[in-house]
Design brief:
- The longest helix has 13 residues, at 134-146.
- Helix content is 19%, strand content 29%.
- Mean pLDDT is 92; it is low at 1-14.
- By secondary structure, it is α/β, with parallel strands linked by helices.
- It has two domains: 23-111, Translation factors (Elongation Factor Tu (Ef-tu), domain 3), CATH 2.40.30.10; 117-280, Rossmann fold.
- A seven-stranded mixed beta sheet has the order 10-9-8-7-11-12-15, sandwiched between helices.
Length: 287
């Protein structure tokens, strides 16, 4: 029997990205943020966009050293490049810090579940970032401000240990200058180079009133910060299901194979890193 061609053209389907194989990528730019953190602008060698959500992460491969999970620090917003902020704490991150613009690295991802920006639309949004927790929140804030009219009130709380650890100084100044954002920043202890608010990040809560029923809180920071910020949110009447957190610690392989980030029956790299507190409060190791 002769072969009859289909009457309609066959649709070409783009192959899914192999999350086990690093894609070559180029370091476009490197900007020092603090003594231990640098911001890297990265672009895939293919020229295509990464296709990520704020709050997701990538595995960064530095040959021949190895790879490490790094939070994405930018929103897509129509750009083909993306940002990472790397803290120098180990072999891979130290190797990254030695790289300059033009270097080639490997990227696996994007991985995990990020922030659901659509779910936040139409609500008051409280964003609480402690220290390097501001890194994944930067992408969320960029996404929110890119569609500012889709959100109601936007309140940003940012806290650092000292002025020497402040990230994204230029952007913080831009957020503070906006009329449609309520921006508050604090450092933990008095410092001769600081004239602003002093105290841990929870000391910002008494300064602001919230309409609890319409507020969604997004919280990222060191583990010790979570329980205290959650308590403050509850005191303001914010429901557990309206508190959104990111658990970025413990991740290693990024694809749920090593078991390093398992908490109870969940994997931070697959089921998270973004969770609602209503899920996490039953996972005793999580908070």
């Amino acid at each position: 029997m002769a072969f009859s061609p289909p009457k309609t053209p066959i649709q070409q389907v783009e192959p899914e990205r192999d999350l086990y194989v690093p894609q070559p990528a180029k370091v476009v730019n490197v900007v020092e943020q603090t003594a231990t953190e640098k911001l890297f602008e990265i672009q895939l060698a293919s020229g295509e966009a990464l296709g990520h959500q704020p709050g997701q992460f990538v595995q960064v491969f530095v040959p021949p050293i190895g790879e490490a999970p790094i939070s994405l620090a930018s929103a897509p917003n129509g750009r083909t490049s993306f940002a990472l902020v790397v803290r120098r704490i180990g072999d891979v991150t130290s190797a990254l810090h030695r790289l300059e613009a033009g270097a080639t690295i490997g990227i696996r991802g994007p991985l995990g579940h990020g922030f659901d920006v659509e779910e936040l639309k139409g609500h008051d949004v409280l964003i609480v970032g402690g220290g390097i927790g501001l890194v994944p929140l930067r992408g969320l804030i960029q996404a929110v401000l890119a569609e500012r009219e889709a959100f109601n009130r936007v309140v940003i709380f940012v806290g650092f240990k000292s002025p020497t650890e402040i990230l994204f100084r230029d952007e913080l100044a831009q957020w503070e200058a906006r009329d449609d954002v309520e921006f508050h920043i604090t450092i933990d202890r008095p410092h001769p180079d600081w004239s602003g608010h002093v105290g841990v990040i929870t000391t910002l809560f008494p300064e602001v009133e919230f309409g609890a029923a319409r507020t969604k809180a997004v919280i990222v920071g060191p583990p010790v910060m979570y329980r205290f910020v959650i308590t403050e949110c509850r005191l303001k009447g914010i429901a557990d299901e309206n508190m959104i957190l990111s658990l970025e610690r413990r991740m290693r392989c990024g694809v749920g194979k090593c078991g390093h980030c398992q908490i109870n029956n969940r994997y931070c790299c697959l089921d998270g890193p973004v969770f609602k507190y209503s899920e996490l409060k039953f996972m005793w190791e999580a908070i």
